[in-house]
Amino acid sequence: MEKPVTEIRMELSRILISELGDQQVIFLREKGGPRTFPILIGINEAMAIDRRIKAQATPRPMTHDLLGSVIEAMGGRITKIVITDIRDHTFIASIFIRRDNELIEIDSRPSDAIALGAAFDTPIFVSEHVLEEVLNESVSKEDKLQMLRERLEMLRDKIAELAAILEDVQDTSDASPEALAQNRKQLDEMRREYAAISELLKKLG
After folding, report:
1. Please, where are the H alpha helices in 39-140?
2. How many domains would you assign to the chain?
3. Do 44 and 103 sit in the same domain of this protein?
4. Is the pTM of this model over 0.85?
5. pLDDT (tens digit, 9 = 90+) per residue, 72-115?
6. Residue 2 maps to a domain
7. Is residue 159 domain-shared with residue 116, that is, in the same domain?
8. Nearest-angstrom CA–CA distance, 169 and 189
9. Which residues pair with 97 in a beta bridge?
10. Which of 35, 55, 132, 186 has the fewest CB atoms within 10 Å, i.e. is most exposed?
């Protein structure tokens, strides 16, 4: 008899966005527990999740809002998002939709599933074996953290580049106060992201 899959309830604990990079980072944390891990996602999905968390309305429905509305208009209800597997360092997710007495499972990228779930306050789960594999110390740390380390190196270069540009602009007064303020804000955000990823890497050894 096949052993039932254990699903662990998770919550979105942090999202790190830098418009200078293609890869963004979200952190899922075990609800009521200590386990947490990052997932790299695209900028569009990251912005969609961030807007929903901050309750920022858009003039017209965005893609994930539209998809959720279509599901509801067809009599469905999104019941949960589950990260079901990890293959070749890529997470696999499913969206579960209840329609009448039927439970429908839809294959999805985790980023799209979580963005859709954020739009409709849907619970997020991760299969226990995925958590074990991600957090298993026997798995190569280089394999697990390589993309985060590459992100850290990219941030280091971008921070140095933007800091130098700001210093030159301030010396020559070539930019408006609004542009300077925006650039300083972006620099602060990148520095916070750099510090957060650095701390995560230290905790994971």
Report:
1. 43-53, 63-73, 110-119, 128-135
2. 2
3. yes
4. no
5. 899 999 999 999 998 877 889 999 999 998 999 999 998 889 88
6. no
7. no
8. 19
9. 78, 104
10. 55
